[in-house]
Design goal:
Layout (H helix, E strand, L loop, with lengths): L7 H14 L3 E5 L10 E5 L2 E8 L8 H12 L4 E6 L5 H10 L2 E3 L1 H8 L1
Helix pairs in contact: 2-3
Length: 114
Amino acid sequence: ALVDKMGGHEFEEFCAKLLKNNGFINVSVTPGSGDQGVDVLAEKDNIKYAIQCKNYSSPLGNTPIQEVNSGKEFYNCHVGVVMTNSIFTSGAKELADATKVLLWNREKLQEMMR
């Protein structure tokens, strides 16, 4: 798929566009360095989302969840999200449940692209 060939920043821009197309507002890509693990900021229904975008070929572990969980505090957001073209390990899912971080995997991305 085209999305799998994207570089990191390109994938962030892609995710931002996808969010806009799905009714999110005030969507912005954070500056690359010192972003505290948050790549995109967005709002929907008065809820602020801090989103990390990961373009990976292997399943994602705990690290992005930990990063976005602290990043959402840094940006004063209500919800942390990890968006990926991949899938998540079972450990990552457990941590996400505990920290209330939303995991948007390949399937969710495909849903949003429709």
